[in-house]
Amino acid sequence: MGVLAGAEPFGHTGSAETGFLLCHGFTGTPASMRAWGDHLAGAGFTVRCPLLPGHGTRWQDLNRTTWEDWYGAVREALLALLATCKTVFVGGLSMGGTLTLRLAEEFGDRIAGIVLVNPSVTRLKWDTRLLPVLGRVVPSVPAIANDIKKPGETELAYPRTPVRAAASLARLWAVVRADLAKVTQPVLLLHSSVDHVVEPVNSQLVLNGVSSTDVTEVVLEDSYHVATQDNDAEVIFTRSVEFAKAHAAQPEETA
């Protein structure tokens, strides 16, 4: 099966000064990031948003991938941006935020700053501990997608949650949590006051765990989990542009 219409990766080539890598969420697609990417492009940034392996086709395909595959895709995209842009930022939604944190942990000050929207680093519900066992007998469970408050807005995502892939996501959470202190870049963290997918403790764990001294927390009062497609989307877009402009490398003055 080919890639679903609208789920394709996208990019905008703008300034060689500043690049922005966007990472979509678990079972989601670049469609949830497209309006954000368009806004960043409108501000002159070079933008890349890859389609993560196993996503954007059928949910069964996601069960054949692991977090290392998803991380490999965003890592490759980051390296390409670092090769062409003077300053690079990374932003992510949900698991995209998890991947963003992992990139920040690995690449240090080669990343100028990160923007996290409802990032996930844990799940408190009891069934999370059963995922490795459940994955051997149950291929999928009901979907986590489409948690959007805005009427008429729909997330392009899988109708089922693949269990083996979810177990791999849980392993990624553990890896990222263990290394949060390695995150030293400026952080802009935006999280919804009501989120039916990612529990509030996630943002608190990130805020408490990173070593960054420049941290801005923004509470999104009128959105659910997929905030990049929700009522507060413009807040995310505007604040991320302001954040990037404030932390971008300043052009060297000519005599």
UniProtKB/TrEMBL annotation:
Active-site positions, per UniProt?
S94, D195, H225
Extract the GO molecular function terms from the UniProt entry.
Answer: carboxylic ester hydrolase activity
Q: Which Pfam families match?
A: Hydrolase_4 (PF12146)
Residues reported to bind substrate? F26, M95
**Segments forming domain Serine aminopeptidase S33:** 20-230
Name the InterPro entries for this protein: AB_hydrolase_fold, Esterase_lipase, Hydrolase_4, MAG_DAG_Lipase
- The source's superkingdom equals Bacteria
| Site entry (Important for substrate specificity), positions | I144
Q: What PANTHER family does the annotation carry?
A: PHOSPHOLIPASE-RELATED (PTHR11614)
The protein depicted here goes by the name: Esterase
Q: Which organism is it from?
A: Amycolatopsis vastitatis
